[in-house]
Amino acid sequence: MIVWLLTTFSAGLLAIFLYQWTTNPFFWVDLRNYLKLRSFKKEMQARMRKGIVTYLDTFLYQARITPDKPFIIYESQSLTYQDVDKRSNQFAKVFRSAGSLKMGDVVALLMCNHPDFICVWFGLCKLGCEVAFLNFNIKASSLLSCLQSCGAKSLVVGADLVASLDEVLPTLKASDISLWTVDHSAPCDGFNSLLDKLDKVSEEPLADPPKVNVMSNFLFIFTSGTTGATCVLKKKFSARQFWKDCVKYDVTVFQYIGELCRYLVNHAWVTEEGLHRVRLAAGSGLRPDVWREFARRFGSIKIREGYGLTEASVGFLNYTDEIGPIGRASYFNKLSMPFELLKYDPKTYGPIRDGSGRCIKAPKGEAGMLVAPLTVTSQFLGYAGNKTQTESKVLRGVVRPGDVYFNTGDLLLCDHRDFLYFCDRIGDTFRWKGENVATTEVSEVLGSLDFLLEVNVYGVTVPGYEGRVGMAAIILKPDHKLDGAEIYKQLAGRLPSYAWPWFLRIQTCPEMTETFKQQKGKLVHEGFNPAVVGEPLYFMSLSQKDYIYLSQSLYDDIISGKILL
Q1: Residues 371-418: tens digit of each pLDDT
Q2: pTM for the full model?
Q3: One domain for residues 117 and 193
Q4: CATH classification of the domain holding 436
Q5: Co-location of 416 and 438 in the same domain
Q6: In degrees rounded to 5, what are phi and psi of residue 108?
Q7: What is the C-alpha to C-alpha distance for residues 46 and 43, in angstroms, rounded to an integer?
Q8: How many domains are there within the chain?
Q9: Residues 112, 43: Cα–Cα separation, whole Å
Q10: CB 109 within 8 A of CB 131
Q11: What is the DSSP secondary-structure string of 424-448?
Q12: DSSP assigned state of 203
């Protein structure tokens, strides 16, 4: 009898397991990930009860328990947690001795990848200052706009970037922004040097560090950043040197953007790519075709593709071995982090609502606008100095009256297996070379040229490339001709290279919507194929520093990869 019962029970369990495996093969994987997140959340809550846990707090905790562990490896240097802690104390004391900084002041940081970037940042944090990270590619008006939006009272510049301020230096001096350079001497009047003063102050912690309020701003971010444990830092990425560095520094984990992996798989074979000990690569923007080739070529490296936002607490991680998705929309994941995918209007870029005013959810298999509810524990604090932009990201009455959601501006697709895929960005921003390109900024730069009447900037896809490359539809003023060399000069002087439009489309009248807004959808769809576009097209030639006529043969060379962008 007992044997029969055990046999029946075992058969029942097997049947349930097979049914579950058939209907939901990722159930246990989803559950395990959910339990891990809950455990981590409880751990963080326990630490928070002991005091505010900021990034600086976490670093100082690590510096206490593992002072001699390498924190930053940079070329021939290796700085331990203790080294960075002490050097940041010195920077803090130099800033404080100048008497120009106090708790709550906003300080902009314009530096390339260098250990002192971290040391200066932490030093300012120890004074209670709010630090704004600036993209070192920005120039002129873009730099001034960033300083104005975050309300910076001081600017710290790396020695190798001081020359990039020449055009705006008079404006900076006139605005009473204190200027510092991470160098042993000041390059000109108006600057304060830092490195020559470090030896005059001790490495000991500040005697009276300010107390940080839980509602204080910690950081202003204009571009993506990275965090880690031990970090190997390079001035810039090199596909030729990458695997050699992985072997040299015994790297086990690296963070990527999709373009980085594409550069690696397109690079010629090197011996070190078969000798590394990398076990994990995490990041975002990795195309499935590059993903497959990366996995085939570089060994058993786990890929953890994800999606996240700086502004709001919504993000995904593909913790499975499925190639392509950015995460999962399982029951457990939506339980821990609610979100919705909504039908959207491609003309207005807003959600489509039903007769009762509620937003309509996108069905599985159809791309929808990603939104996440805003709550006490999941807030959106907005964009510094731009209330209009902040309000544009907030949706109300999405599912029920009175609810408030954050609009990510991204299109995601959920398939029948609950895998999530990133599709595209909505509106006037696109990604190229791993960077966000704001079309309005590019339009303003081109629009200042005296021979252009109208400028409409958008992004178009190119086979073999991640994201969208810049293109501009322009209208010339009467009795004026296209001056490609002047356009190139204007772009090179005022915008980073990833924001430059590679293609120009010459129009005689603008493409407008019914509400008299610039029409981008049709232009994006037609792209830059001369056989499709019935208007003159031009292509940017880096060697000639000019725009040249885009013929069909030149177009074919671009599409085939013979000409690289």
Answers
A1: 999 987 788 877 777 788 888 889 999 999 999 999 998 889 999 999
A2: 0.67
A3: yes
A4: 3.30.300.30
A5: no
A6: -90, 140
A7: 5
A8: 4
A9: 34
A10: yes
A11: EE-SSEEEETTEEEEHHHHHHHHHT
A12: S
User: What CA–CA distance (Å, rounded) separates 454 from 456?
Assistant: 7
Q: Which residues on adjacent β-strands are paired with residue 283?
A: 256, 305
Contact 345, 334 (CB under 8 A): no
| 87 within domain boundaries | yes
Position 515 pLDDT exceeds 60 = no
Task: Please identify, among 367, 395, 425, the residue that sits at the C-terminal boundary of a domain.
Answer: 425
The rounded distance, in Å, linking the Cα atoms of 288 and 236 is: 25
d(CA 520, CA 511): 8
For residue 406, what is the DSSP state?
A: E
Contacts for 186 with CB less than 8 Å, ≥ 6 apart? 192, 193
CA–CA separation, 561 and 548 (whole Å): 18
SS3 295: helix
CA distances from 361 to 314, 342, 349, 476 (A): 18, 4, 15, 43
How far is the C-alpha of 324 from the C-alpha of 289, rounded, in Å? 9
202 with 69, same domain: the answer is yes
Residue 514 pLDDT more than 50?
Answer: no
Q: Domain residues for 257?
A: 239-308
**Residue 227 lies inside a defined structural domain of this protein:** no
In a domain, 39, yes or no: no
Residue 421: count of CB within 10 angstroms of its CB: 18
CA distance 107 to 124: 8
Say which residue the tokens 């981590």 belong to.
40
- Where do we find the tokens 């609810």? 403
One-letter amino acid for residue 225 of the chain: G
CATH number of the domain to which 77 belongs? 3.40.50.12780
Report CA Rg, the chain: 26
- End-to-end Cα distance, the chain: 75
